[in-house]
Every structure is written in C-alpha cells, then in structure tokens.
Amino acid sequence: MSNNEKVALITGATRGIGLETARQLGKMGIVIVVGGRTQHAAHEAADKLLAESIEAYPVVVDITKDADRKRAAAFVAEKFGKLDILVNNAGVGGEGGLLNAHTIETTQEELQSVFNANLFSVVAITREFLPLLKKSPAGRIVNLGSIVGSLTLQAMPGSPITPFKAFAYNASKTALNQFTVHLAAELQSTNIKVNSAHPGWVKTELGTQQAQMEIGDGAKTSVELALIGQDGPSGKFIHLGNELPW
C-alpha cells in the first residue's frame, strides 16, 4: 500500500448496507478493513471483496466489546499507521421492528441493549480510532443515522415517518445525531469531518422487503460522506446530498 492510498474501516460490514458500502468504496481504490462480529463473517465478507479485486482485510470487531475495539485499532495502526475513513455502520433495531409502536411499554433491557449498540459503542469505537484518524490528511467519520431520529419530522403533523414509532431505536438515532453535532464542533479545527447519514428505507433485515430502496442505493450516502472534500459539510444530517432536519 502506498502512503497516498486511503484506508477505510466499516463496522458491521459483513452484510447489507455495510458490505455494500465497503464494495463501493473499494471499487474506488480505497483499502477496506472489514469489521465483523465473528472471524468467520469478517473473513467471508473480505473474501467476497477480494474476489472483486478489492483490497480488503478482515478484522473481528464486535463494537460492544472493548477488547475487540482495542484489537481492531491495534491492527489498523500496525498495518497502515493511519485511518482515513471510519464508517460507524454497525447497529441494532429494537424489539418488534420499526413499525411496532411501543413507548411506555419499552423495557429497560431493550433501551439498554439498543443504546449500547447504537450510541455508547459508537462513541467508544470512535474514541479508539480517533488518534489514527488524526494522522490522516482528510479524516472522515460517517455515523449511520436514520430519519426516524429526526425530532422535527417526528413532531410534524402528517409526517411521512409518523408510523415509525419504535421508541428505543428512534431515540438511539436521535442521540447519535447529537454525538455527530458535538464531535464535529470539537474537531472543527482539524482535518476531520463528521456527519450523520440517513441511508433511506432500505431492503435489509431491519428495513424488511417493504422498504422502497435497494441496498446499492442505501449505501450511496455513506460513500458520498466518506469521500467529501475539504469544502464539504461537517456536523450535518444528510441523505443523498440533501440536508435533513434534526
């Protein structure tokens, strides 16, 4: 690898939007570190990318485990000495899916599990990789948000996202957006840009086959934000080039 090549780590990159994000970035000549929860899943996904002539390296990283986060950062540091792109793609849905409205009945266990994966662990892995991102001439952090986390749209009468009231999941994505805003402000004097990406309602395990978008299109926003130039946005909530309301 030359010093000019970019390196991207995508968490949850073994399937769905994460794997497609890795594929699209890899086809642009970016070296991919495939983050997966198990060794088998990470190696299988990396092999798929290698078969498409994409330089890919598997790494086991369950983002909820501190030891995994540290080992992944150590691997990237030893192998590449820097990280240019961190796509915080890994996350979980709540109980019952996106269309199962439950608020006060949401259990403490569900809230803790969803927030641990979708917020606390994202903050933790970003903290772990930030020193390597600071070594990049143009570090980029992409947090996979969701339009269901928009307080503006959730409160709007007749909003298109009105049916989506899965409280734990929605609230975790609202909190993730707050992390994006705060981290972008903290890093505004650096070369690092931080944004939240709404992929769209995509045909994944979480989105179900009722969704409107194919996986290939669902990865586009993450890819665009991973590659924005120095004049691009930071601290924004974006879907396919359009800014969304917080």
Automatic annotation (TrEMBL):
Keywords: NADP, Oxidoreductase. The keyword Secreted does not apply. InterPro entries: CBR1-like, NAD(P)-bd_dom_sf, SDR_fam. It comes from the Bacteria. Gene3D superfamilies: NAD(P)-binding Rossmann-like Domain. GO terms for molecular function: oxidoreductase activity, acting on the CH-OH group of donors, NAD or NADP as acceptor. The keyword NADP applies. Belongs to the short-chain dehydrogenases/reductases (SDR) family. PANTHER family: (+)-NEOMENTHOL DEHYDROGENASE, SHORT-CHAIN DEHYDROGENASE_REDUCTASE. This is NAD(P)-dependent dehydrogenase (Short-subunit alcohol dehydrogenase family).
